[in-house]
Design goal:
- The chain is α/β, with parallel strands linked by helices and 360 residues long.
- It has a single domain, classed as TIM Barrel.
- The strands form three sheets. Strands 3-4-6-9-10-11-12-13 form an eight-stranded parallel barrel, surrounded by seven helices. Strands 1-2 form a two-stranded antiparallel sheet.
- Helix 7 links the parallel strand 10 and strand 11.
- The model has no long low-confidence stretch (mean pLDDT 96).
- It binds ligand FNR.
- Ligand FNR binds next to strand 4 and helix 10.
């Protein structure tokens, strides 16, 4: 039987109640990485709203890996209990709690959107900023800090931080993990030829440029229970001549599958400012479709998916196993309920009993 938006999705030992996930979205609301009531209410209300999967925002594996000083982090054991409070609540609402583990690399130490004067402006030392690192010392933009090139020993230290963060994520009750290897952050900046000019074993050939991702995933996968999904978000194209391509992504997805990765979350862009991205309805869905069919791995589609019929069509036609929604979920935490009406499956999403009188 063909699948649709409201078919349950089973992967390894977990089952999502439908094919709808909340895409990870930075809230710029933490202090020293620690989740608080905002994160509980933000993520919790979207679990109440009926999504099957709730992925917490890019969560830094070391303090230096935060995009902004207000990013979430999971770089010390003290972060575990406040995350556990959130995962417990999400699970009680029938959704699966997920987390995206990240390192911002050369795009770290920037002001939160509503605190900055110009987009992506670096936070200086005197305002709490820090040194940023990357595969080389080319900055992302003229507004960003000049990164310091990582030595092989320092690369190993960051990979160890990803390993430890994976253990903490499990301890905190997450059941779905996503390694953030997209949007120009550290992992993407290693595999893209636009940002990696290294001449050692982490740069140059395709195999060398993907080494950081493969080694890190290998370390993390060992620590993450085999029966729980391990996923990777890729930027499937740099959208410029001479950059990373969809064909590269298919090759990398095949290699990741061999490492025990269960699903590829198909995003794009973010590694150069002002790339000519043809933004429009479902514009990244073709990446998901190609990777799903060519690398024979489960995928999630994301990017300007806003209507129930559109999302249902993506699943019914085998273009993705899941859809992730970002901005539409900010506008409407009850999007799954709305979508169930749009596709004429009113009963597909149970209304929380506390709210039933509002929906009768
Ligand atoms: C994002 N996005 C994002 N992506 C990611 O991988 N990690 C993150 O932490 C964030 N943070 C973030 C914050 C906010 C406020 C927005 C709007 C977006 C990108 C997001 O997950 C998604 O991929 C894009 O927004 C495209 O999907 P939509 O919004 O068109 O459904």
């Amino acid at each position: 039987m063909s699948q649709h938006l409201f078919s349950p999705f089973s992967m390894k030992g977990i089952t999502l109640r439908n094919r709808i996930g909340v895409s990870p979205m930075c809230q710029y609301s933490a202090e020293d990485g620690t989740p608080n009531d905002w994160h509980l209410v933000h993520l919790g209300s979207r679990a109440v709203g009926g999504a099957g999967l709730i992925i917490a925002e890019a969560t830094a594996v070391e303090a230096r890996g935060r995009i902004s000083p207000e990013d979430l982090g999971i770089y010390k054991d003290e972060h575990i209990p406040p995350f556990r409070r959130i995962t417990d609540f999400i699970r009680k609402q029938g959704a699966v709690p997920g987390i995206q583990l990240a390192h911002a690399g050369r795009k770290a130490s920037t002001y939160s959107p509503w605190k900055q004067r110009v987009s992506g402006v670096a936070v200086p030392d005197e305002d709490g900023g820090w040194e940023v690192v990357g595969p080389g010392n080319t900055p992302f933009s003229k507004n960003h800090r000049i990164p310091r090139e990582l030595s092989p020993e320092e690369i190993a230290d960051i990979q160890e931080s990803f390993r430890l963060a994976t253990l903490r994520a499990r301890e905190a009750g997450f059941e779905w993990i996503e390694f953030h290897a997209a949007h120009g952050y550290l992992a993407h900046s290693f595999y893209s030829p636009l940002s990696n000019q290294r001449t050692d074993r982490y740069g140059g050939s395709f195999d060398n440029r993907i080494r950081f991702v493969l080694e890190t995933v290998r370390l993390m996968r060992k620590e993450w229970p085999e029966e729980l999904p391990f996923t990777v978000r890729l930027s499937c194209s740099d959208w410029v001549e001479g950059g990373w391509t969809l064909e590269d992504s298919v090759d990398l997805a095949k290699r990741l599958k061999e490492e025990g990765v269960d699903l590829i979350d198909c995003s794009s862009g973010g590694n150069i400012p002002k790339a000519p991205i043809p933004v429009g309805a479902g514009y990244q869905v073709p990446f998901s479709e190609t990777i799903r069919h060519s690398a024979k791995i489960a995928t999630a589609a994301v990017g300007l998916i806003t209507h129930g019929m559109q999302a249902d069509d993506i699943i019914r036609n085998g273009r993705a196993d899941l859809v992730l929604l970002g901005r539409e979920m900010l506008r409407d935490p009850y999007w799954p309920l709305r979508a169930s009406q749009q596709v004429h499956q009113r009963d597909a999403v149970p209304v929380p009993p506390q709210y039933e009188r509002g929906w009768n």
